[in-house]
Write a structure and sequence with these properties.
The structure is a single chain. By secondary structure, the chain is of the alpha+beta class. 21% of the residues lie in helices and 33% in strands. The chain has an eight-stranded mixed sheet.
């Protein structure tokens, strides 16, 4: 988290959060959603300003409820997820070695691979060990138990051909083997798209979760 954001949190610890205004789409693009977009259920306009994208990526985190957010100075902006909290690109180097990088450009080291009923590919990775806490300066904490939650990332659909070139698929298309490294072959596991949030302990729509909580009581 940026130092300027930490300073803002310390100075204004109780700024109300907001939901519905920011979305991460299935290609790893950040999208701003105005009131019209929210009313229509539209994904919103893609953010193209590189400095703003970098700022969002550096201040992107998960709370203890499994909701992902962007800490915009003192305000927590909860993120709507089109699918998963991470989206990765798969590339093959000249020597044939494969690399995965998330939407922030950081390496993603997979430990398991899943294929849903629509043919989307998801990679699981061990959690990041270095998760910062802002519990002293905010009314709602980030998740300090990150070691218990695996990271899950959707493969960008433009990289599916590269994936299949390095996979041995069974007839069902949802099982087989992904040849990640010369010494590492990861089994493909089927998973239902509807089960992904619960399986990986994240909330796809904090906005809907908030509305449901208000309706319940």
């Amino acid at each position: 988290m940026d130092d300027i954001v930490k300073q803002a949190l310390a100075r204004w610890p109780n700024v109300p959060h907001c939901t519905g205004w920011l979305l991460l789409d299935a290609r790893g693009h950040w999208r701003l959603r105005d009131e019209a977009d929210q009313a229509q259920g539209a994904p919103g306009s893609q953010i193209r300003h590189e400095a703003l994208i970098g700022f969002i990526n550096r201040n992107y985190a998960r709370d203890a409820k499994g909701q992902w957010f962007f800490q915009n100075g003192p305000q927590r902006v909860y993120v709507e997820l089109e699918y998963t909290p991470w989206v990765v690109r798969l590339a093959s180097a000249k020597d044939g070695a494969l690399t995965l990088a998330d939407q922030a450009g950081q390496p993603f080291e997979p430990t398991a691979v899943y294929v849903d009923e629509h043919g989307s590919v998801l990679f699981e990775a061990v959690p990041e060990a270095d998760t910062e806490s802002t519990t002293e300066s905010t009314t709602e904490s980030v998740d300090t138990s990150a070691a218990t939650h695996a990271r899950v990332a959707l493969l960008h659909d433009h990289d599916l051909d590269c994936f299949t070139e390095h996979a041995t698929l069974a007839e069902d298309g949802a099982s087989g083997t992904f040849h990640w490294r010369a010494e590492t072959a990861l089994p493909l596991r089927p998973i239902a798209r509807a089960d992904v949030p619960a399986h990986f302990a994240f909330v796809r729509s904090p906005e809907q979760a908030e509305k449901a909580a208000k309706a319940a009581g």
